[in-house]
Amino acid sequence: MLSEVVTKTLHRALRIGTCAALAGAIATAAAADGDRSYQALRDWIAQAPDADLETGRTYSIADRAALEAYVPPTVWGYYFFDDMAMEVTPTAHYPTPPDWKTDGSGAHTLDERGILRNFNGGGTPFPQVAPDDPQAAVKLIWNMLWRPGEHDFDMPMMTWLRSENGKLDRELEYMSTNATYALGDRCLVPGYEEVKSKRIMEFRSPRDMAGAKDMQIVYVDHDREDSGWLYMPAQRKPRRTLASERTSELMGMDMIREDMNGFNGKIHENDWTYLGRRKVLATVNVRDNPEMGGPHLWVPNHARWEVRDAHVVMIEPKAANHPYSHRILFLDPDSHWTMWMLAFDRKDGQLLRMAQHFMKYSESYRDEQPQQAPYVNQDFTKNLGHHVFLHLGENDINAKKPHATITHCFVKKRMFSEARAQQFYSLRNMISGRR
Amino acid sequence: MQCLRAIGPCAGAVLLALTSLPAAQAIVTLTDEIELEGFVNLQNVVREPRFESAELVMQRNTAQIEGKYYFLKDSTAFGRFHTGRLEEATLTIVGRGVYDSIYDIRDSYRDAFDADRHHPGEAELKLREAFIDFLLPPFTLRLGRQQVVWGETDNFRALDVINPLDLRWHWSWESWEDIRIPLWMARGVYDIGKLGPFDESFIEGVYIPWDVQQNEISTDPRRPWALHGAGLRERANTVIAGGQVLDLDLRVRDGSPSRRFENGQGGMRFKAIWGDVEFSLNYFYGLSVDTRARYQAARSGIFGNTFRAEYVTENPRTHLVGFTANYSEEKYTQAVFRMETVFTTGVPVAIDDAAPRIADPDGDQFDEARRTVLMLAVDRPTWIRWLNDQRTFFLSTQIFWRHYLDWNTYYRGIPAVEQAVFNGQVLPDRYVSTNTDRIDQNEFVMTFSASTSYGAAGLMQPRFVLAYDPRSTGAYNQIGFDYLLSKHIQLKLYQNLFWRVNGDSIGPWQLGDLWGHSSGNSRHETVFSLIYQF
Question: What share of chain A is helix, strand, coil (3-state, %, to 5)?
Answer without folding.
Answer: 20, 35, 40
